[in-house]
């Protein structure tokens, strides 16, 4: 299922990084204390900030997200609490990082109330700059450097050592609110966001719990 109106959807076509602001406030943990299906679309246009071990600070506009919730067979916490998914059962505003295929890391943000296992997968970013020492394999296509959950984790050096990390400013990872310009752009063009089904699943495939900025070139898949 695709939910979008093609009229006035091109608000992010020119340069999405224009909406990245270093003056936007950090998002507090209680902002994430809502169902993942509410938080996921609201994260679009927000900025993920990574402070690398070198001290370099990298920012990326969040352009694609997926929601995972209780009762969802695709959710890692669907069956029971384990050592691996325990952070999903805790308070909101923490990271949940896991490994797939033995080589790709995926970054999630824990949402909803303490004890309600729920999270949002950050699927793609529009990076402000490619980090030094990051993935420069395709410099002719900088929009694609973080166009997927594994790609963005590789580019920003995110692995399982950053799981269960509290998203607080001036730490290794945090999230900042949308800039006022971004808020205005989305308010003026609801079609700037597309809602559709999630990717790469064998269960819960019918749930329309993926959102992305319609015209962003950094979206992993349309």
Give the CATH level 1 class: Alpha Beta
Question: SSE order in H/E notation?
Answer: HEEEEEHEHEE
Mean pLDDT: 90
CATH topology: 3-methyladenine DNA Glycosylase, Chain A
> What radius of gyration results from the CA coordinates?
16 Å
By CATH, the superfamily comes out as: Methylpurine-DNA glycosylase (MPG)
Notes on the structure:
There is one protein chain. This protein has 222 residues and is α+β, with helices and mostly antiparallel strands. It has a single domain (10-213), classed as Roll (3-methyladenine DNA Glycosylase, Chain A). The chain is 11% helix and 23% strand. The longest helix has 9 residues, at 180-188. The radius of gyration is 16 Å and the shape is globular.
What are the SSEs and their pairings?
Blueprint: H1 36-43, E1 47-51, E2 57-68, E3 95-100, E4 104-110, E5 119-127, H2 149-155, E6 173-176, H3 180-188, E7 193-196, E8 210-213
Antiparallel strand pairs: 1-2, 1-6, 2-5, 2-8, 3-4, 4-5, 7-8
Question: What is the gist of this entry?
Answer:
This protein is α+β, with helices and mostly antiparallel strands and 222 residues long. The protein contains three helices and eight strands, in the order H-E-E-E-E-E-H-E-H-E-E.
């Amino acid at each position: 299922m695709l939910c979008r109106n093609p009229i006035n959807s091109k608000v992010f076509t020119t340069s999405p990084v224009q909406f990245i602001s270093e003056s936007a406030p950090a998002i507090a943990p209680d902002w994430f204390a809502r169902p993942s299906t509410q938080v996921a679309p609201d994260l679009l246009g927000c900025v993920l900030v990574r402070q690398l071990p070198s001290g370099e600070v990298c920012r990326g506009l969040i352009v694609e997200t997926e929601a995972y919730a209780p009762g969802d067979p695709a959710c890692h916490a669907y069956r029971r609490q384990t050592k691996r998914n325990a952070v999903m059962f805790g308070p909101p505003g923490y990271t949940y990082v896991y490994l797939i295929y033995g080589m790709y890391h995926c970054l999630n943000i824990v949402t909803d109330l303490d004890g309600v296992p729920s999270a949002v997968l950050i699927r793609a970013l529009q990076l402000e700059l490619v980090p030094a020492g990051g993935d420069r394999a395709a410099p002719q296509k900088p929009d694609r450097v973080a166009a997927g959950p594994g790609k963005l984790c590789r580019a920003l050096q995110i692995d399982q050592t950053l799981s269960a990390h509290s998203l607080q400013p001036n730490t290794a990872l945090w999230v900042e609110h949308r800039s006022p310009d971004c808020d205005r752009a989305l308010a003026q063009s609801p079609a700037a966001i597309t809602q559709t089904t999630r990717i790469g699943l064998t269960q819960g495939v019918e749930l329309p719990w993926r959102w992305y900025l319609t015209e962003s070139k950094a979206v992993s898949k349309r």
